[in-house]
Every structure is written in C-alpha cells, then in structure tokens.
Specification:
The protein is α/β, with parallel strands linked by helices and about 240 residues long. It has one domain: 2-enoyl-CoA Hydratase, Chain A, domain 1 (Alpha-Beta Complex), CATH 3.90.226.10. Helices cover about 45% and strands about 20% of the residues. The strands form 2 sheets. It has a 7-stranded mixed beta sheet with strand order 1-2-3-4-6-8-11, sandwiched between helices. The chain has a 4-stranded mixed beta sheet with strand order 5-7-9-10.
C-alpha cells in the first residue's frame, strides 16, 4: 500500500483506489494549507494507477469547513485570489474522469459540504449532519456550493436550504438526493468500498466516457456563477469578520 502524510491530508492507495483523508481533527477544518496539500495530490489523482478517489474525514467528522479562528488571526490570507485558488481545486475534482466519492463519516458543513458536492457521489452514515450555514454568519458559500447544490437538489430546495442555513439529517439528505446512499456507522467503510468497487466493475473506458458526457452538461455559466460566488464571499468576509465569534 502506498501512503503519504501531508499537513492536513493523509493519502493512501490500495488496489487502485486513492483515499484522501482530511486530517485536521476534531473538526477537520479546511485552512489554506489544506488546498496546498490538495494541490500536492493532483498528480496522484491523475495517475493511471488510480481508478477512483475517496475523500473522508479523520475521526468522527467529515469537515466543518472554514476555520474562522484561523481567518480572524490572519484576515489578509482570505482574499479573492485564495478563494479562487480553492475553487480551482474543487473544479479540478469535479472534472476528473474517474469516480470521486465523498465518504461522509460525520458532520459535513460549509466548505466540507462544498467539497462533497464537488465529488461525483456522496455516501454518509446515518447520523451525519449536512448543511451550508454561511448566511447565519453573514457570508455566502464561496467554493461552488450554491451552483452545485442547485444542480444536485434543484433550485427551490437549494435556495431554501442556503437561505435558512439549514442543517439536515442523513435521511433528509437522501430524500433530497443530496446523498446517494446512507449506511450504518458500523461497517460504513466496508459499504463504501463495495459501492466504489461496484462502480469500477464496468470497463474503465466506458466509465471515463460516462463521466465526460455528464460533465458536458456543465455550461460556461456554471463556471461564471461559481466565480461570482467566490467574489461575493471575498467581499463579505472583511465586513463580517469582526462580528464572527
């Protein structure tokens, strides 16, 4: 088994499946270094030796998104350039022509859900909580979450979920098609691996073509709208920073 430990990601590969474990417990926040680590994994994700990629979280949380305390300590670190850089990495994940799966092993909020939305499939445990609560602190989802949530659950429910800052249960997420499967906590990882191996049971060339064809449904407007959300997030952050506790 091939492994690598970065600052906020533990990477391992076994049987052509690359597992990228968010390693910043207990909340698995996504600081700026996380995106540097993610960039360091690009070539591995693209490798011909990797047929599928799984994102999961260390411990009992998938990710609670941005680390507000880190942002308060270094407010200048969160600017339009850094947000666009993070967006580019999530778009890179979405455009991969190999299955990318979010194995949501616990709470999945804010940027954590935006990462999961950039994946092609979302699997979660029965007790998972999912949401984009940014509006409750005067921000907007800035990593493509608005556009991707609309694509996944439709505009009406996406607007309701975002404006209300709703944090929903796994059964609710399943009913909205926000997640593909809900599995028991016990044996969750085995269920995830079975799901992934089933995806890979088809011919590799066909799987790649299906993903490519699905990606053709993404318009230029999607990329523009994702960029607009990043701009809004960057503009709102300085205004709200002193109010966030």
């Amino acid at each position: 088994m091939k492994t690598a430990v970065l600052t906020h990601i533990e990477a391992s590969q076994e049987q052509r499946i690359l597992v990228l474990c968010l390693n910043n417990p207990p909340n698995n926040y996504l600081p700026s270094q996380f995106f540097v680590d993610l960039t360091a994994c690009r070539d591995w994700m693209l490798s011909e030796e990797v047929d599928a990629i799984i994102f999961t979280g260390k411990g009992r949380t998938f990710s609670k998104g941005a680390d507000i305390q880190e942002i308060q300590k270094s407010p200048g670190a969160v600017n339009l350039e850094s947000v666009l850089y993070a967006n580019e990495m999530f778009s890179f994940i979405q455009k991969l022509q190999k299955p990318v799966i979010a194995a949501i092993n616990g709470t999945c909020l804010g940027g954590g859900l935006e990462l999961a939305l950039a994946c092609h499939f979302r699997l979660c445990i029965e007790k998972a909580i999912l949401g984009l609560p940014e509006v409750t602190i005067g921000l907007v989802p800035g990593l493509g979450g608005i556009q991707r949530l609309i694509q996944v659950i439709g505009p009406a429910k996406a607007l309701e979920m975002i404006l209300m800052g709703a944090m929903i249960s796994a059964p609710q997420a399943l009913s909205l098609n926000l997640v593909n499967r809900v599995f028991p906590k016990d044996g969750f990882w085995e269920h995830v691996l079975l799901f992934v191996r089933t995806l890979l049971s088809g011919r590799k060339e066909a799987v790649q073509q299906v993903l490519r064809l699905f990606q053709l449904s993404q318009s230029e407007d999607d990329a523009r709208n994702i960029r607009e959300a990043a701009i809004s997030f960057s503009q709102l952050m300085p205004q709200q920073l002193n109010r966030i506790t």
